[in-house]
């Protein structure tokens, strides 16, 4: 199967040996956009970091497969070359590194195979086109990575990186948190621009408002380290109305 396939994934935090993911099952077929919702502290960011291969987390059981490749022991850069991308919940700032240079590095690192180079001209063209789609001023190319960017500008910049890198699967961790309505529109436009039969996305969110603009094929609910149910966009609407308590009762969960 093409896409992401996670089976019975158990993960612990190396630092304190705590098990956070307790048997996650999740399939995101190629071309589909899936939302993941769930209370704070339930393991959503842990799941996304683990898919990218963060060294802070240890897989103790289960498998992560992407487009037929087993990811469990693969380094992060190899995962990125397979087409995986993560937009961070808390984007980092790097003083002294220009945004355009950082993004060009990332594009080179993921797409440059042997003698195939991305020309600087086509890079700059694509960069300006995408910044235009995201309503970003050209000056953001020359500024230091995320330094002095507002919360919303950082999130726009994560989406810009995604549009430049052209991943096959984008994991977007709370890309909509703290955004005003205009920024939310713009970011949704960027994600929708990526839609294709060969692009899939995992959108981690607390709010159904982004899902009004970026229509998910499936909404998953995660609680206490597991996926507990899934449905269509109406599930996100229900959570918005009723919170997690009603769902817990329905599912007979006592967590
Ligand atoms: P979510 O994204 O759903 O809010 P997280 O995956 O961030 O949840 O966190 C799940 C649990 O694991 C929380 O209790 C959090 O404090 C803990 N946790 C996650 N990563 C780390 C880490 N690197 N060190 C210590 N605790 C962590
Ligand atoms: Mg959280
Ligand atoms: Mg999180």
From TrEMBL:
<dbReference type="InterPro" id="IPR010230">
    <property type="entry name" value="FeS-cluster_ATPase_SufC"/>
</dbReference>
<keyword id="KW-0547">Nucleotide-binding</keyword>
<feature type="domain" description="ABC transporter">
    <location>
        <begin position="4"/>
        <end position="249"/>
    </location>
</feature>
<keyword id="KW-0067">ATP-binding</keyword>
<dbReference type="GO" id="GO:0016887">
    <property type="term" value="F:ATP hydrolysis activity"/>
</dbReference>
<protein>
    <submittedName>
        <fullName>Fe-S cluster assembly ATPase SufC</fullName>
    </submittedName>
</protein>
<comment type="similarity">
    <text>Belongs to the ABC transporter superfamily. Ycf16 family.</text>
</comment>
<dbReference type="GO" id="GO:0005524">
    <property type="term" value="F:ATP binding"/>
</dbReference>
<dbReference type="Pfam" id="PF00005">
    <property type="entry name" value="ABC_tran"/>
</dbReference>
<dbReference type="InterPro" id="IPR003593">
    <property type="entry name" value="AAA+_ATPase"/>
</dbReference>
<dbReference type="InterPro" id="IPR017871">
    <property type="entry name" value="ABC_transporter-like_CS"/>
</dbReference>
<dbReference type="InterPro" id="IPR003439">
    <property type="entry name" value="ABC_transporter-like_ATP-bd"/>
</dbReference>
<dbReference type="InterPro" id="IPR027417">
    <property type="entry name" value="P-loop_NTPase"/>
</dbReference>
């Amino acid at each position: 199967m093409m896409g992401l396939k996670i089976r019975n994934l158990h993960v612990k935090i190396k630092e304190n040996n705590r098990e956070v993911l307790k048997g996650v099952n999740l399939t995101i077929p190629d071309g589909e956009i899936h939302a993941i919702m769930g209370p704070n502290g339930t393991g959503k960011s842990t799941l996304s970091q683990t898919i990218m291969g963060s060294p802070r987390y240890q897989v103790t059981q289960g498998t992560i497969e992407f487009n037929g490749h087993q990811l469990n022991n693969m380094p992060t850069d190899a995962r990125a070359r397979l087409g995986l991308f993560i937009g961070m919940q808390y984007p980092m700032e790097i003083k002294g590194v220009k945004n355009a240079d950082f993004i060009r590095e990332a594009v080179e690192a993921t797409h440059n195979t042997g003698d195939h180079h991305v020309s600087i001209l086509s890079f700059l063209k694509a960069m300006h086109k995408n910044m235009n789609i995201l309503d970003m001023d050209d000056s953001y190319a020359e500024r230091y990575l995320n330094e002095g960017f507002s919360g919303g500008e950082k999130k726009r910049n994560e989406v810009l990186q995604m549009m430049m890198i052209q991943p096959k699967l984008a994991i977007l961790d709370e890309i909509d948190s703290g955004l005003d309505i205009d920024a939310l529109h713009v970011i949704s436009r960027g994600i929708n621009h990526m839609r294709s039969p060969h692009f899939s996305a995992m959108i981690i969110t607390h709010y159904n408002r982004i899902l009004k603009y970026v229509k998910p094929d499936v909404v998953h609910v995660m609680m206490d380290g597991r996926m507990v149910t899934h449905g269509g966009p109406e599930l996100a609407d229900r959570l918005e109305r009723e919170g997690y308590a009603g769902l817990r009762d329905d599912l007979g969960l006592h967590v």
